[in-house]
Design brief:
The complex is a heterodimer of chains A (181) and B (373). Chain A is of the alpha+beta class. In chain A, 17% of the residues lie in helices and 41% in strands. The radius of gyration of chain B is 28 Å and the shape is flat. The N and C termini of chain B lie far apart (74 Å). Classes of the chains: A alpha+beta (181), B alpha+beta (373).
Chain lengths: 181, 373
């Protein structure tokens, strides 16, 4: 900063105006408990063999229950992995949040369906309350959850992982939901 | 003959002799293999003759003569048929079923039926926590009852005495202090299993509960309930004790009820055993190893201690860079101590972004009251 007081004041006014201009964006990133990374580049499953839907009445800003249907003729290995994305300016955007996921899983037989309860809120992970893990309470908006599933049984999933090819058999099944104001 | 001719002749004789020895040894070996094959075939012919259904022959489900005492192949690869009495009629009975070349008879005290009935009866009493297994030792013509020796040799002797008193009505039993690799399937840390609810996990390690019962420790999550029967590879393994999925621990002790499963300390994928005498606490930066049934053997670094997973309500966890995937829950986490031995650090709880979080062994020990096998 310069030593001249008038120039300093002008600079502060300019900075204030710039910030005010940013706030004109209808979806202001600073209101979220996380940052929006940018447009999603995740490849989402678009077929008809697997379907994820929100179970009515279960949705809240911190959790929701979903129904996963396996309409294929093969097994589906289902773990607990998931992601949440937010729709911003008509585009799905990735959220910069870390989450904890239990490492169990199960096989969903052909033609079967299962309920998946997800609590995404999380919380502070340290006594100093500096690190938050989880998506927090989602502010009002349109979101989609991407549930990660693997085509095949647990035994096959093991083989994929140990051969480093699990990505080829992993699908992200989407389910769009809205958090009302 | 000059010296050169003598040398060549000696060398030729030496090579021919050596070749002859090797050939004879190979012939002996192949002859023994052939003999053993014949013995196995004869044994199967006998079983087939006695079985109720020739398409499904069995060692146990069959109609056998009351004097038959079992059969085995001896070190010379003869088929030894044991009988409680031996006479011409019995010899003719067997020669009517199989070719009697390389078949020997041996007179024993107990018939196979007696041994089998005794074994079945004792097996039904294996709720006795001191008995770890029951089997028939055909060659010794006895029912083998394996008694826990987990505490000390002196204790093993008194355990055997206690079991022997309970089973005094049977006179064909021999008692053995149980050995690690005794009866059927050894279950190693890292083995995968699916609980009845369908959730897949990894076996952490074998342990004793506070009452001295042998069992396994794995992740509890919210899926396993107290008293739930847990099957492994389609066979009942045991019963879950009260699971803990709060405070500092996400773990459950599953008490073994099926002694067909035997404990092991060799960690799958690593081929190394842990030292059960102590546990290890790891600081940030320490190298840590794991085995999850999906991800296999992994090496990583400790990133954070005293981590709290608010998502699942567990605190005092350790966060690492270990790779993990669904099905790894409960898997063993261990590290090398200063003396070069490996010690258990905990079991896999969850995945944080890209690194495994584990429950500390010290907390499992305190909360579940288990002692590492």
């Amino acid at each position: 900063m310069t030593e001249h007081p008038i120039i300093n004041i002008v600079i502060w006014i300019l900075v204030w105006l710039l910030n005010t201009g940013n706030q004109a964006d209808p979806i202001e990133t600073s209101v979220y408990p996380w940052e929006i990374i940018g447009e999603s580049n995740i490849s989402v499953y678009e077929g008809n063999s697997y379907e994820l839907s929100c179970i009515e009445g279960t949705l809240s800003p911190s959790e929701g229950s979903f129904l996963l249907k396996n309409q294929s003729d093969g097994f589906l290995n289902v773990g607990r992995s998931y992601l949440i994305e937010i729709k911003q300016n008509g585009q799905w955007c990735e959220i910069d949040a870390e989450i904890d996921i239990l490492l169990d899983g199960f096989d969903l037989a052909p033609g079967e369906e299962c309920r998946i309860d997800i609590s995404w809120k999380g919380g502070y992970t340290d006594q100093k309350r500096e690190n938050w893990v989880g998506y927090g309470e989602l502010p009002a908006g349109e979101y989609r959850i991407l549930k990660s599933v693997v085509k095949g049984t647990w035994e096959e999933f093991r083989e994929y992982v140990q051969n480093g090819v699990e990505d080829q058999y992993t699908y992200m099944i989407p389910c769009v939901f809205t958090i009302e104001p | 003959m000059n010296k050169r001719s003598v040398f060549c002749l000696t060398l030729a004789i030496f090579i021919l002799t050596l070749t002859g020895i090797i050939y004879a040894a190979q012939t002996d070996e192949s002859s023994l293999q052939e003999k053993e094959g014949d013995a196995i075939e004869k044994y199967n012919e006998l079983l087939e003759y006695w079985s109720y259904n020739s398409d499904n022959i069995s060692d146990f489900v069959m109609s056998i003569p009351e004097y038959y005492g079992g059969a085995y192949i001896d070190s010379d690869k003869n088929l030894v048929i044991q009988v409680t009495e031996l006479n011409t009629e019995i010899e003719q009975y067997f020669s009517g079923i199989i070719d009697m070349s390389n078949v020997l008879f041996h007179v024993v005290e107990n018939s196979f039926l007696e041994l089998y009935n005794c074994k079945e009866s004792v097996a039904s009493k294996t709720s006795d926590s001191l008995i770890t297994g029951v089997g028939i030792r055909v060659e010794e013509n006895t029912v083998a009852v394996y008694v826990t020796n987990e505490i000390s040799q002196t204790k093993a002797v008194s355990n055997i005495q206690a079991v022997a008193n309970d089973l005094s009505e049977y006179d064909c039993i021999t008692y053995y202090a149980a050995e690690e690799d005794m009866p059927l399937a050894t279950l190693s840390p890292g083995a995968g299993f699916t609980e009845d609810g369908g959730s897949s996990r990894t076996l952490g390690y074998w342990a004793y509960d506070s009452s001295g019962n042998l069992g396994i420790v794995t992740a509890a999550h919210k899926g396993i309930t107290a008293g739930e029967t847990i099957s492994i590879n389609g066979s009942v393994f045991g019963v879950a004790s009260t699971p803990r999925c709060s405070g500092t621990v996400d773990a459950v002790f599953i008490r073994r009820t099926n002694t067909g499963f035997t404990p092991g300390r060799v960690i799958q994928g690593w081929g190394i055993s842990y030292n059960s005498a102590a546990i290890i606490e790891l600081p940030v930066g320490a190298t840590v190893r794991s085995y999850g049934n999906t991800s296999g053997a992994q090496t990583g670094t400790v990133l954070e201690i005293s981590y709290t997973s608010t998502t699942y309500g567990i605190s005092d966890l350790v966060r690492t860079t270990l790779v993990g995937a669904g099905g790894d829950s409960g898997g063993i986490v261990f590290a090398m101590g200063s003396n070069g031995s490996y010690y258990i650090a905990g079991i896999i709880h969850a995945l944080h972004s890209s690194g495994v979080i584990y429950v500390k062994q010290s907390n499992i020990k305190n909360v579940l009251g288990v002692t590492i096998y």
